[in-house]
Fold these 3 entries.
Entry 1:
Amino acid sequence: MSKGVRVRFAPSPTGPLHIGGVRTALYNYLFAQKHNGTFILRIEDTDQTRYVSGAEAYIIESLNWLGLIPAESVDHGGDYGPYRQSERRDIYTAHVEQLIEAGHAYYAFDTPVELEEMREREKANGKHSPKYDASIRMTMRNSLTLSDAEVQDLIEKGENVTVRMKVPEGEVIGFSDEVRGRVQFDTSELDDKVILKADGLPTYHLANVVDDRLMEISHVIRGEEWLSSTAHHVLLYRFFGWEAEMPVFTHLPLIMKPSGKGKLSKRDGAKFGFPVFPLEWNDEKEGAIYAGFREEGFLPDALINFLSLLGWSPGTDQEMFTRDELAQEFSIAKIIKSGAQFNYDKAKWFNQQYIIASPTSELLALVADDIKAVGGDLSDEFISGVIDMLKPRVESIGEFVTEGTYFWSAPTAYEEKPLKKKFKLDNQAHFEEIISALQASDAWDAESLSALVKGFINDNGLKFGEILPVLRICMTGSMAGPDLFEMIALLGKEETVSRLQQGLKEAIAIKTAS
Ligand code: GLU
């Protein structure tokens, strides 16, 4: 009986998860949600030479942060485990033996030097890209060319014992890809891929196909870079007699550089000043730290929304999608066939929209500690007020701290140019009266304060433009910032009066000095 939709995200822990990998995970996750299916995380760690410590934990932490939680995984368990390939060695060995017995695979004992010699020889014979294939295999040291006794002997010695799949000659291997349509490869283009390495572990191709079948994967959704491997995979399905259970393949187009030219690489992040990883990654080998979306102040929902549209289109102008809407709307048929251009400004725009839409209490939980670290012992109520005011003005979570400085420290410098322009010494007495009126005011909410100051301006025949900008600079040091009276209301009477008095002194000094 069909198990319904079962999809897997199958990263190799060879380094941090690139944003393209996150998108692959997301599309698998959404597809599973849409079809009430199962989203599985499988760790493909059979290549010991490329294993990077910390990478698996990084992958899991990234998915957790983004809320892409698998139903089956190393952490969550499941009926199809183990979910880490290095723990499935026996399963692969048994399957490789099955292929050898059926004549679909053979032992190969060639050393790296012999393989290199073969390539040189073939190049000298005029071949462009020589490979271990039907035209070559009978000239090499393998179980097809050596006697049984020799083969046994070499296996026992255990040096350079690999197993290769035997790609048939003169065939066209075709499969249907949901994005590309019909894809075909001539077997003359395919080499006899190693499926079991000298270290006894399988290669990606063998392990991937065996696991997809044993885990009853219904749909394979992965990056375009795996398209050419699929021909080998289709052959393996046939060798095992699993053709009828072959998953539906979808290869996602690449994520391109902001220029649209070439694949987005990890170095582009550093080059253009944006993150290409979900979380910060400390690359000890390179001695480099790569920025992460989380540390750059992104909300996970914003990144999800941004990535959902980086290669998929709902077919309408709608840009903002809740997770539920995405799960409803997502469809493989609407994956965009060309590469998706990475646009960091768009990512920041999404983040801003999500920050504006976030309840203040949620933002408070994210930023309170950082604000207290620079602003001192501030109350949650006060910080919430700051968040409310800054929400429409920040693009990242970190900006609540960097943009909000004037809420916890009185200005130490004042923007001179506008202050000189707007402040008139003749108005000094008016400012003093405004300060006194504020000091005497019983009401301390933005509306009353605004009515008080604006009423004073009107009653005295003054202009808003000669008073309000000066008050603002006295309060924050600059012309920028949220609504003046809301800010004054939040900062309280004592702080406001003290800032205005200090600012007025500065204004007079600046003006008299010029
Ligand atoms: N382990 C492969 C990777 O790192 C998985 C490719 C696939 O999904 O088949 O991307």
Note: The pocket of glutamic acid is lined by residues 10-12, 44, 204, 208, 222, 226 (CB under 6 Å).
Entry 2:
Amino acid sequence: MHEAELEKLYEEMGRNHLKPLWAAERSIVPVEPQPKAVAWLWKWSRLYDFARRAGEMVTLDRGGDRRAMGLSNPGLGGLPYATPTLWAAVQWLNGREVAPAHRHTPQAVRFIIEGKDTYSTVQGDKVYLERGDFVINPPWYWHDHGSEGDTPAVWMDGLDIPITNYLDASFFDLGSKEVQDVTAVVNGSVMKYGYGQLRPAWEAPCQKYSPLSTYKWATTERALNNLAKADASPFDDVALEYTNPHTGRPVMDTLTAWIQMLRPGIHTKAHRQVNTAVYHVFEGRGATVIGGVRFDWEQGDIFVIPTWAYHEHINESKTERAILFSIQDTPILVALGKYREEALSTGGGHQQVKKTFDADKVLAHK
Ligand code: 1HN
């Protein structure tokens, strides 16, 4: 009698759009995160080939104005997102091509993989880009890109599109000018603000967004080499976060970016965090063990670390460094009071490797 009455109660509640917590409490408030996104790796050879073919076949116009190929995490049911909070892509720009000016509320960063005679103009600040440069694009800032030479440019984009759409906060403005007016001297923000510990004396500090639109590779590499001589993290080896030099804070409210060097012979300790990350292998080869699965990587590959998964990095080369660029959603978790991290306490800080990742084999099993 009791069972049937209870069923009836739940059924009536359902018809009135009510859901009893007690009947599904652990799925509504899990004991720990139950991420749907999975650890994954995309090989550069394939990413590059697809992007190059799109470069031959797809023209840029004001309807589709960026040739960006988004990474779609196989755990997210076909959504075009790398993680629940991060959109990441490989973007291809042909020589002598322009990606026209527009602006939007999603916040963006770019990391240049290949580029010669390529520029980005962000809110009137035109900066020429080279391999290893890092570019920021605050929300609602105008931006256009162009290639003035004959060679293509390729970069990785990171945007907070998933969280912007979750919050129903996306706005996009195509504007009327294909190319923005350049309002400062070319490479101006790098020359003015590229020496983080020194600031033009007559200006106030930039509190909200970094005054520097492009972080040049030469400066980044010098910082990595010097940090390697002074200190390193047991979990991430020689790791640097890109910051607003005037505040020390991450460059965006919703995402941050790191550059890290794994020195020859390094095997870091495992830890896990409540955040998600998309890594691009800028240089070298090595492996990252994520949740007990070994992901071998080489230059250009892109891989995802989902939330709350133990991960550790390995560079087995005796002579060559490996360099990883990553975007991470940590600022959102920190701002909302939900960030946690934990070191692996067993196995001397190292995970047991249960298998090696092979995208084609995983797909074959499906
Ligand atoms: C965008 O403006 C860029 O400027 C890249 O390079 C990716 C994805 C969605 C909307 C705007 C870019 C984008 C984007």
Note: The radius of gyration is 22 Å.
Entry 3:
Amino acid sequence: MHQMTLAEIARGLADKKFSSEELTKVLLARITQLDPQLNSFISLTEELALEQAKAADARRANGESGALLGAPIAHKDLFCTQGIRTSCGSKMLDNFKAPYDATVVAKLAAAGAVTLGKTNMDEFAMGSANESSWYGAVKNPWNLEHVPGGSSGGSAAAVAARLLPAATATDTGGSIRQPAAFTNLTGVKPTYGRVSRWGMIAYASSLDQGGPLARTAEDCAILLQGMAGFDQNDSTSIDEPVPDYSASLNTSLQGLRIGVPKEYFSAGLDPRIAELIQNSIQELQKLGAVIKEISLPNMQHAIPAYYVIAPAEASSNLSRFDGVRFGHRCENPENLIDLYKRSRGEGFGPEVQRRIMVGAYALSAGYYDAYYLKAQKIRRLVKNDFMAAFNEVDIILGPTTPNPAWKLGAKNSDPVAAYLEDVYTITANLAGLPGLSMPAGFVDGLPVGVQLLAPYFQEGRLLNVAHQYQLNTDWHTRTPTGF
Ligand code: GLN
């Protein structure tokens, strides 16, 4: 039962092969049995899950239908869930029970999805390895000595290990696509403004975007359908109709123009990954796509720009966790300054403290023009590169990451080494564009992802290309041994 995709579950529920309650019980037992190896969940919500499953079964019995009605999912632990701990992977929020549901959570619940729990993540979504969580590192089901990627590593590991079919995640600089690549999943980072950020604890507000992690493009289409849409509570949400993502999955790729940036294949890319990317290009050519070399000349500046902008926004967003309004409070403070200092010093881990310091520095008088303003100018150049490229091509294709998942602890002593691994993903966040990662093969038994980028609001196109690729390849069907 645990091998089923969301699409298969929807068919099984519609055909009354099993109930949502039965399926939910099987998966909850599986999580209890196997998750100690992975640490992919921070909280399990068994009671809520069974209640939601029974309600979904009752709705189906009353003639209702829908791809998410009775479908088990989990939420990354930065989506606020009413009355349930929403920790953001931090000691700072270990005792925080959100007073309301995030829009994404409310929309999926209304569609009948069943919440099994809240998944582990890098603290405040800062990281690429899921090692900065206060609740401990998450392990990669493909090799328990390796990281699952981050910051949505809990969602990725849980779905890859077949603990559940799909989960929500967020992507500020790659946190959906990179863990998807590291665990053999499909993940979509939507256009900025497509999915509401209301009730999603902020890391860098101009970059953050929620999206689905699942095994197939078909399932991502189903989950994204439930997440996307205008929300008046989010001032950056865009009032644009949501297309039927499942309906366009089977559009032909004949004549599709795919751009491959020459900068993607320079030093730093593992040659074995480069070869797998070439294979995926050939596969898409067989399906009728036309390949064109393009250039993204400002790509080399994207990492330094991102690692100024994201910490700058984080330093501002995280100022609310002061032990007074929100967050952990230290014992017996001597005075107000002592309260702030110790509460924040105890509540935030080292990576979060590093980012707050970098961000506050970049925003301070005298440095603002040199760092923050310059980074914003680079951001515009990165966006202009994409706009020029999309005049010539429909989709941009390349690797999701330069290397496969590294060993736990391998990059702990050098944060910059981890930052450099984000080279292919962060440009989409800087430009606000949608991106998708899908399985493209293995290197040393570890999964490799291929990334597709599209013009604004063309998530449907990304899902269509990925679905056609998945109809003709079987990488996405491989299961990690032991799970
Ligand atoms: N690795 C990037 C960072 O640490 C991206 C994280 C994310 O997308 N949330 O900022």
Note: The radius of gyration is 21 Å.
